[in-house]
Each structure stands twice: as structure tokens, then as C-alpha cells.
Specification:
With 190 residues, the chain is of the alpha/beta class. The chain has eight helices and nine strands. The strands form two sheets. A five-stranded parallel β-sheet has the order 2-1-3-4-5, sandwiched between helices. Helix 2 runs parallel beside helix 3 and helix 6 packs across helix 8. The relative contact order is 0.10.
Amino acid sequence: MSKILVVEDDEAPAAALPAGFAYEGPEVTRAADGEEGLRLAREEAPEIVILDVMLPKMTGLEVCKVLRGEGSQLPIIMLTARGQEIDKVLGLKLGADDYICKPFSPREVVARVKAVLRRSEAGPEKQTLSAGPLALDPETHRVTVDGEELNLTPSEFSLLEVMMSKPERVFGRNDLRSEEHTSELQSLTN
């Protein structure tokens, strides 16, 4: 770890996080509101962002959504006092990599940061698929032909992804409706 961005407006957790990383040696930068956090995430190139959900000026959920909307793969751990399941699910759906509830143990945060960084260093499991002029990116759900983007429905995208992931196989209608591919398609559309 070399650089961590902590976006937290509450002084107690904001002070505890750098102390937890003292033996790990990274530079810990802090932002006290969402707008400053978004700016620093863009400009400072941290390895990971620890992002509080409830922030002044711009919520952590909004910051996460903007970063992911810009295509950022920056690892994000959401930090919040709100432990309700719906809040966690929303944060994860917006692109957060993990979620920690306050109060927290600094050692747990360090362990979770290391785990998220290990996963992000392994790289994405799915890479862009291509066949001639056709390219499909599973991460961004974009399909292009000769660089021109196609607008596909989620079902069309899923079918194309299954077929492009196994280019040597001929699929019949019943094959694509089979239980094996149904679960594959469902996992791709979620």
C-alpha cells in the first residue's frame, strides 16, 4: 500500500484510520466532504478509497456513483454508522467493493483494505471479448461494431456474452434455454 484516501467528516474515525495504518506505511490523505473526496480521488491517484456514506456537500453513495460512472476501477470501501441491509446493498450495487459499519476496529479495516487490494490486483475476471469487428466488454456492458456502440437490451447482451465466451460452440434455441445457460444468463444480468 502506498496511498489511501479517507473521506470522512467525523473526527474520531478520521483520526483512527491513519493510526491503524501506521505500521503499514502508506500515505493517508483525508477529505472532510464528498466534493473534496471526489476531487482527491480523481487527482491524487490513491490505491483505495475509504468512503463514509453520510458526508456534507455530496454523499459517499453519490461519490461512488460518479466515480463508477466515469469508469474508475478504484477500489472503494464504504464506511458508515448506518448498518441497515438496504444501505449496504445500495452501496454495493453502486460499485463499492466492501462495506464496514461503525464502530469499527482499525485492525479489521486494515485487513479489509488488504483483501480488497489483493482482489483488485488480481484484475478483472472477465476481459473484453471480440470476434472480428464485434467487441463486448462485460465490465461496462458495452458492445461495439467497428467502434460504433450498439444499444442492446440486457437479455440481448447476456445472450451475446454467452455465445462470445464460447466461440467454438454452436448454440441451439433449446441450449440457450437449458438450465445450465439459464443460471449463467441470470448471473450475467444481475
